[in-house]
Amino acid sequence: MENQEIKKLPFWDIVARSFKYVFKNRILLKSILPLVAALAVLQIVIGLPFLCSLDTNACSNDWRRAVTVLSIALGAVSVIINYCRSIICKAKVDFTSLRFWKQTVLYFIASLVLSVIVVVPVLVCLTLSAFVFDPNTSINILTLISVLVSVASAIVFAPLFLVFPAIAVEDYQMIKWSKLFALVKGNHNAVFWAQFVIMLPYWLVAKMWSAIYALINSGSYVIALIFVIGGLLLGILDACFKGAFFAHVYQFFKFYDKPK
Fold this sequence. Notes:
It is a single chain. This protein has 260 residues and is an all-alpha fold. The chain contains 10 helices and no strands.
């Protein structure tokens, strides 16, 4: 990469374009609906364990919950990959090819690695804090420390978020520690907080959705199914926003990835 000054990431422009792309590209958005339908059918077959995310009293930590978590994660990753490929490569939606499954596996591996990288500093700080604070009387302090260190760690390693769109478009040359940190230099906060803003609507609406379900407090299967389908839609829509965001951030920094 050439020794040139890298411009600052246009924070609000990237966020706005990510949201607008999802709502304006209705063809791509509609192509995701069969995935939501498939997830809903799976929930019906295994007894609606998704309700656990709406009401902890409905939780059952058995194989059905594990299947739910895995299926939703797989669905979200598949949506993110397709959005990245659509925006960056102008590719058509693909949920079945060998290429897609290869990208999906690599995406999950990258997610696991990044999670470990971010979590390790948190565990170290909590371990050290345990010697200073009494865990039985300072739960709030330890919780605050874990949150602050988690955020700080995620900001420090924010350049690694570009690994996800790079995997989606098979730009494996981009996946180099030194290159990513050089490209994103000075933009760690912008990348992290922009992603936070992208995810914030989902968190707020999902909380409201859960609160409404708890307020209704109905034992009706039909109502439960409606809330499960609504929750699945929200989760997949959140993945659409993330995919659009990753793609736009990748395009911005890729512009500066010039050969020497």
